[in-house]
Specification:
With about 425 residues, the protein is of the alpha+beta class. It has helices at about 10-35, 55-75, 85, 110-130, 135-170, 235-245, 255-265, 305-310, 320-325, and strands spanning about 195-200, 200-205, 220-225, 230, 275, 280-285, 290, 360-365, 390-395, 410-415, 425, 430. β5 and β6 form a beta hairpin.
Length: about 425
């Protein structure tokens, strides 16, 4: 990146701006790192309507910064391409008409080279913006929107990985995106017995307490919880396989009605990316096709499958509030996150709760507003609020989530039929 130097500014302001610039470079370089593992033929593939081609993700994150920061605060800067406002708008109707989501894979042009040039253009624009003299009020707004934009790009880094995996995982060649980790770095801990930790009833505080958060994590408020218990770890492949062998996919009494319909329509009888070969189960991972690891967390199961497994286990899915309370007892936010570059859930280490990282954990909570919810002002108010319908909340992050992107109050949301996200299961029970 290049840009104007903030050296003539007061020392404290210059230091703060330099920290912002460092964050921009770090996050933007991670997106580049993911795409360095792709061939040019991979960039334009849209494997299903809910996924997007890698080059679209790269262009959209540029569009976000250009639309909500560079155009607003540096209006004299040239626009990279006037049609990009339409092509790479995702769902912000207040900005203009978005290009249809299911047709993103039809865009052979602009080329990958043009998208990379667009990326360099936006990088330079962000540097110029950070260094430009602004009023304190404008600087504060820029910092807030820039932080939102960086977290937005981290969301798309995770989507890059899930969408690439859907493409590669449905290719008969099962190509890897990354090399297999060094066996010396892998561990195979003994299977830890599944036990349940009990939690007392009472009023608890829910929501983001301080620092950056999305608007759907606010306002912080009180919720009453009845006594409950929560599993000490995630459900494993071995446990899920027992559910399958006991006819779990063929017992309608275990399933929600809509879930049973989806199971029948989609022909589900095992998690996404499982393959039966030579008398054994194999699993496609982003490092290729490997024999199923029995004590690793089951992943790529829908909310409906997770709820059916919970019913079979004489348990249930936790509510998002139960999950948030339990996660607050973890002193450190530790787990298998994207920075480890394993990009697959790992077996549990001794004493580790797996509350964070490895897999997003389905909850039984429907995604909706907290009492007193206020969306962000202006067009950015479309970021979360408009999706508060028919989706379930997931918590905790996954092996594809950057560590500094997650927090106990983070609310992810997907339709309960979705399986392409790195989603798994933790059981809960009433006391």
């Amino acid at each position: 990146m290049v840009g104007n130097s903030p050296g003539t500014l007061p020392a404290q302001t210059a230091e703060r701006l330099q920290a912002l610039l460092s964050d921009v470079q770090r996050v933007r370089q991670r997106s580049q790192w993911i795409c360095e593992h792709l061939e040019i033929e991979d960039f334009g593939v849209q494997p299903m309507p809910d996924a997007s081609p890698p080059k679209w993700h790269l262009a959209h994150t540029n569009w976000f910064f250009e639309t909500f920061l560079i155009k607003r605060f540096l209006p004299a800067e040239p626009v990279f391409h006037s049609d990009f406002e339409h092509l790479f708008n995702s769902y912000y109707n207040g900005v203009g008409e978005p290009y249809p989501r299911d047709k993103r894979g039809n865009l052979s042009r602009p080329t990958v080279a043009q998208i990379m040039s667009y990326r360099a253009f936006v990088d330079e624009g962000l540097c110029n913006l950070i260094a430009a003299p602004m009023s304190e009020e404008d600087q504060q707004t820029i910092r807030q929107v820039l932080e939102l934009g960086l977290h937005h790009e981290q969301q798309h880094q995770e989507l890059l990985l899930t969408d690439i995996k859907y493409n590669f995982g449905h290719n008969p060649l099962c190509p890897p995106l990354i090399d297999s980790p060094d066996p010396a770095d892998e561990h195979s801990p003994l299977q830890t017995a599944l036990t349940f930790n009990d939690y007392e009833p009472g009023l608890i505080e829910i929501g983001a307490p301080a620092g950056f958060c999305f608007d759907n994590e606010l306002p912080r408020h009180r919720v009453y919880l009845a006594p409950f218990s929560l599993a000490n770890r995630l459900v494993t492949n071995e446990e899920y396989l027992t559910f399958m062998e006991d006819g779990g996919y063929h017992r309608p009494e275990l399933w929600l009605s809509e879930g049973w319909s989806q199971r029948q329509q989609q022909g589900w009888d095992h998690p996404l990316y499982w393959h039966w070969r030579d008398g054994a189960w194999w699993e496609y991972r982003l490092d290729g096709l490997y024999p199923l690891v029995s004590d690793a967390p089951v992943v790529h199961v829908s909310g409906y499958e997770s709820a059916a497994f919970a019913a079979w286990s004489n348990a249930r899915l936790p509510t998002e509030f139960e999950w948030e309370l339990a996660s607050s007892f973890d002193a450190e936010l530790e787990g298998n996150f994207a920075e480890r570059n394993l990009l697959h859930p790992q077996p549990r280490s001794t004493g580790h709760s797996q509350m964070f990282g490895d897999v997003w954990e389905w909850t039984s909570s429907h995604y909706g507003p907290y009492p007193g919810y206020q969306p962000l002002p202006g067009v950015l108010g479309e970021y979360n609020g408009k999706f508060m319908s028919s989706q379930w909340v997931l918590r905790g992050g996954s092996c594809a989530t950057p560590k500094d992107h997650i927090r106990p109050s983070y609310r992810n949301f997907f339709y309960p039929k979705d399986r392409w996200q790195f989603s798994g299961v933790r059981l809960a029970r009433d006391l």
